[in-house]
Write a structure and sequence with these properties.
Layout lengths: L2 H11 L1 E2 L4 H4 L3 H7 L4 E2 L1 E4 L8 H8 L5 E6 L2 E13 L1 H8 L10 E14 L1 H6 L14 H18 L21 H9 L8 H19 L5 E3 H15 L9 H7 L5 E4 L11 H6 L3 E4 L1 H7 L2 H15 L5 H7 L42 H10 L11 E2 L4 E2 L1 E4 L16 E4 L1 H8 L3 E3 L4 E4 L5 E4 L10 H10 L8 H5 L1
Antiparallel strand pairs: 1-2, 3-6, 4-5, 5-6, 7-9, 8-9, 10-11, 12-13, 14-15, 15-16
Helix pairs in contact: 8-14, 9-10, 9-11, 9-14, 14-18
The protein binds zinc ion (ZN).
The site of zinc ion has 8 residues, from helix 17.
């Protein structure tokens, strides 16, 4: 079995692009762009024997943005997202060698968002009418994709359900086996619990965002300390507390108090963070504890964490710029960074945030019929302010996805994830200036003040999960919620 070995080598550990420079060929730029720190996560497939067999179809039908599920011995062991596709037999031969038929894994997938876990495959496969064992590449039919993700989330949720509170307090490095979203929020929301911790909380939150960015781009939760120094250092000096020079060691020392963080020296775990400098010299590593990393790889918990850090400690920072820099560009907007939601139907308004447009990943097609249905149900009346914008011959409104489609939010295209808004409120909703609270009250993200009640229509069901996700991005799920203060 070469699978597990290959998985460890080219997905879990990743390959150093610098060592494969001679075989990268025309994919060199692409790979360096996808993996800015030089470590690439790759997986591949040998060419199909026949034009029309299932494998040939699977190879042909792969798309950037697709999810890849790793299967082994009746279990699913990891999932990942396709960041790029390349055909490169030379690289494949160097990374994985040849099989017994002298074929290579030349159809290569560049992967991000790698999450490892272990769940039995049988329930999922049965529900999908697929027969185990799985061989090589297997496509899940699009229609069944949601079902499969749902099942998987359930299985994973069950696995991570034993919640233990993180142990807070200096010098206590009790391992946190698992964390719940509430624990994470508590830990992230109390970085400044200590008095006089203002500047410290600022640099800690920057450090955490940088570390979340690493997880999102598929990197190991633990990074060598010299990487932290060279990459986090510039971010701290640019976005850190004004007038205070902060070295990356500084947030490290305090972050371990949060219960989310660990530092290990090369030889052994070293909870005594006073010796960070020594750890760096000895090749030590630091990063999120396993339980925290596992949680932060879940979309909702991650959106909440990012929203909470930004709202709590980084009010006066250029957040879109910062998030872009740490690899979380899409999180500054409800619609992601890939061009926004042109649901207007009346000529696109590109450029609304065009300045920050990024190279990406597929942009999912939205179903115009769903958009029209929602607009018609509401008679083009904004669900926030009630405005019905008149045009010469008719009326104009826009449909906003609540949990954005596409990277990084990956919300679904269905009416329960849509709102009918006027252009002004659409912009505010997409730029996270307002959110909807648990009682369907629309509030300003800035201070939680009330704007009004979301107007709903009995035939337009809105799924609260998407609202919760958007609220998380806005920092609206903060503990001791801002709502009470505002009322
Ligand atoms: Zn409006």
């Amino acid at each position: 079995m070469r699978g597990p070995k290959h998985f460890h080598h080219s997905v879990r550990t990743g390959i150093r692009l610098s060592e494969y420079e001679h075989v990268l060929g025309e994919n060199a730029d692409q790979l360096k762009r996808l993996f800015p720190d030089g470590v690439a996560r790759l997986w591949g497939a040998t060419p199909a024997q026949k034009e029309r067999n299932a494998k040939a179809v699977a190879i042909r039908e792969r798309r950037v943005g697709d999810e890849v599920l790793f299967y082994g011995e009746m279990k699913f062991i990891a999932r990942a997202r396709i960041l790029g596709l390349l055909h490169n037999p030379g690289l494949a031969a160097e990374v994985w060698g040849f099989d017994e038929n002298h074929r290579t894994w030349e159809h290569i997938m560049a992967l991000g968002d790698v999450i490892e876990f272990e769940v039995p495959a049988a329930p999922v496969l049965t529900a999908l009418d697929m027969k185990p064992p799985l061989w090589s590449l297997t496509l899940v039919p699009a229609a069944k994709r949601k079902l499969h993700l749902h099942l998987l989330d359930e299985l994973l949720g069950g696995q991570a359900s034993t919640v233990r509170r993180p142990v807070l307090g200096k010098g206590i490095a009790a391992p946190v086996e698992s964390l719940g979203r509430g624990d994470l929020q508590r830990a992230l929301g109390t970085l400044d619990a200590d008095t006089s911790a203002g500047p410290r909380a600022r640099s800690e939150s920057l450090t955490l965002l940088w570390a979340i960015g690493r997880l999102v781009t598929g990197h190991d939760r633990m990074a060598p300390l010299d990487v932290w120094q060279s990459q986090l250092g510039p971010i701290l000096s640019e976005f850190g507390p004004p007038g205070v020079a902060v070295s990356p060691e500084y947030p490290f020392r305090h972050l371990s108090d949060s219960g989310l963080w660990e530092v290990e020296s090369a030889e052994h775990r070293d909870p005594d963070l006073v010796s960070v400098a020594a750890s760096i010299e000895s090749g030590g590593r630091a990063g999120f504890r396993r339980a925290a990393a596992r949680l932060l790889r879940q979309p909702l918990a991650r959106a909440e964490a990012i929203g909470l850090l930004c709202a709590s400690y980084l009010d006066d920072v250029d957040q879109p710029e910062l998030l872009e820099r740490v690899g979380l560009g899409g999180y500054a907007y409800a619609g992601g960074s890939d061009g926004g939601q042109d649901d207007s139907g009346g000529g696109g308004r590109s450029g609304r945030r065009g300045q920050r447009r990024q190279v990406t990943v597929s942009r999912p097609d939205r179903d115009k019929r769903l958009v029209e249905r929602v607009k018609l149900l509401h008679g083009h009346r904004c669900q926030v302010c009630g405005l019905r914008l008149e045009t010469r011959f008719s009326h104009y409104s826009e449909a906003a996805h609540i949990q954005g489609l596409g990277h990084p939010h990956n919300g679904p295209d269905k009416t329960s994830n849509l709102l009918c808004l006027c252009p002004n409120h659409h912009v505010q909703f997409d730029t996270l200036a307002l959110f909807i609270d648990e009682d369907w009250i629309v509030r300003r993200s800035q201070d939680g003040s009330r704007i009004g009640v979301l107007r709903r229509h009995p035939e337009h069901h809105i799924d609260e999960r998407y609202v919760e996700y958007h609220r998380g991005l806005c920092g609206g799920n903060r503990l001791g919620s801002t709502h009470d203060r505002a009322l």
